[in-house]
## 1
Amino acid sequence: MDDPVERMKLVLNESMDDREFPMIGVDNMDPKLYNAARSGNVEHLTSIVDANPGTNLNRCLTPQRNTVLHIAVKFEQQKIVQRMIQQWPSLISQPNSKGDTPLHMAARAGNHDLTKLLTPASNLTEGNSAIEEGNPVRQAGGVALRMSNSEGSNPIHEALKKSHKEVALHLLAFEERHGLARDVNMAGESLLYLAAEAGLDEVVNRIIDIGDYSTRGPDGQNPLHIAVIKSRFWAG
């Protein structure tokens, strides 16, 4: 299984996908596993895992410390994601070298379906027994939702930076449980500030309705500054 040529291809794929980060010394993911996750080949992935009983997928990492679930989310392979979270739910909250969990990646990409799969809602899909109160999937999703990456951003920050309204609203549905609206990232951006900057009025109203939120923005700005700047622009 340890083909040096295939392993080098994996290293090159990772470095090209993420050029700003240097490669690190963890690269023990089988290239066949990587390719199965990337291509969405559930049968191939299952056969690889079944042929290696006792495999700990939390330790099968690419050079950028991505797990199989990170790869499946990145390439939007929903069937692989479903299989992974059913058998290895702890992968949902495992960060890569940037501190991104698979949920950060799904939110940043604006993939509503994958975001819903990775977050702890009991009503995501009717009859889906994998998403229930007390289930490991729900618990791992709740952990990932509260996690900050190397930029100090939680998954909702990532959705708002890219103006993904539906993803942000879905994740904000868990606000009462997790107190996420108070989070401010390392750039000094609160959720309310990012929502106002993106012009997402529905998200702004949802955050205000929560009642316990930060208004902070970078360089001392706040959502009111954003509103004034935009009104001047529109008036001109």
Note: Residues 18-26, 122-132, 232-236 have pLDDT under 50 and may be disordered.
## 2
Amino acid sequence: MVYLENDAFLNELVRMFSKSKVKGNGTVYVIMKKFDGTKRAAATTVTKKSSGTGKQKKTQKVSEEPTPAHACLIRAKLQNRKIATFVPAKEVNRFQLAYCSVLRGNMDALKKTKKNKSKSVRRPPKYLNFLHTLCGSLKVMFLY
């Protein structure tokens, strides 16, 4: 995976979108997630208990490095090409505006979904209306 600066990431993302349109056989996957300051998962160690149960206990090493302020990790993938960038909290607004403009410019190949028209209230046939009015008037006559 290639880690790029924010502007270089957006330029490469535009190239990925154009390649997927030209070839017609690719989908660009974009993932956004919270970045906690580590590039890899913490290493785990497996220790066996000396008792006869044979259960294993996993422990994780905690990194003592201070984590930076809140950041966002953004990854993009097209076939076997992967790129990523880190967006610090101070630059999120500027990056989000540029990212939205890139997405709006490249989402022209989406297919429209067919909407089912809601059925209007069914009106009963005219002869039922006549019977209803006739029976209604008969009920009125019998009540008095």
Note: The radius of gyration is 32 Å.
## 3
Amino acid sequence: MASKLVSCNLCKKEISSSATVCPNCGEKNPTKRPQKVGWLGKICGLIIWGAVAASILLGFFGTPNRTSTQATSETSALTEEQIYNQSCSKDWRKCKSNADIVNLNTSVNSAMKTACKRAAEKNSKFEIDWNWLAFGTFYENDSDIKTGEILIQDNDSKYGNMFGGKVKVTTKCLFNLKTMTVEQVSAE
């Protein structure tokens, strides 16, 4: 019994309807017809395209217009805060409090914590286990800006002892912001 001839899906040449590979182009399953998209698939496609079109249009046209005085006052208020944050993050002397030094000036904060940990480790005879947020406590005031010194503290450090045990100790560190060095470190 002869099989009927159909066209290959890829190269469109006539082949046997029972062929598993097209002898002309090598297409696997050359007689299998692609599935048609049903009505549910079409609706989903329309919803997706509608969402894409809406986001593009909103990107071009944005939110409703505000009056120019509203936009200007909001921009200037944000700008003053941004200017302060940027200046404090670059120079600790421009910060209003030690809280701003710790929270905004990441380079000083990082240098301070690293130097304090090293000084404490240098003074200790045994190993110290630091928590993940070492020296995360400070005493909030504005005199640190005037004196150039900031006191930070770690409440969860564990110092080794001569018996091989660990003792939870509070470590205090007085850091000189002007010289970027540790003035004093103590364990209580």
Note: The first helix runs from residue 39 to 61.
## 4
Amino acid sequence: MPVDTAVLPRFSLRAPLVATLAGAVLSLSGCTMFGGAKDPVVPVSASPDAGAQTVQASKLQKFLWIFSPYRPDIQQGNFISQEMLTQLKVGQTREQVKFLLGTPLLTDIFHADRWDFPFYLARGDGELTSSRVTVYFKDNKVEKFDGGNLPTEKEYIARIAGPSKVASKQAPKREEAGSASIKITK
């Protein structure tokens, strides 16, 4: 089947333009980091006294998020607040710890007397928060626990939902000079 020569020159000009445009769109839509594959996540195996660690996205990453698809917030593990950790005491049983902190995410058969509660929150905007609480048992009672400086429940809710919008109470309106109000009583 012969190819029409009038179509061929237009096709040869459009093909590189379309390919370049498609490549640019695909590279920007899938690009979440610039400058290499650096892992901004703080490893969960960081020092136990460090507490909750937050890494925020750079300005360039925030700019590139405009071109990327929707990214939902991802929460993994048990969130343990500072209030929950203050209720944990040495000498409590495993059942009491499970009631306070929830079921441990990591239980190891090689370390049966240790429960790990890692937590990881990846916001859609690139902000990463991670923490780890470790509880050590001896004779099925709490011997010690590590958690560090954890956020309070209010700080955690503010991080997820954003700053709270407190309704400001308006003062009652005062009457303007020169206006009159009439009160009718029966």
Note: Strands lie at 53-55, 74-77, 106-107, 114-122, 128-138, 141-146.
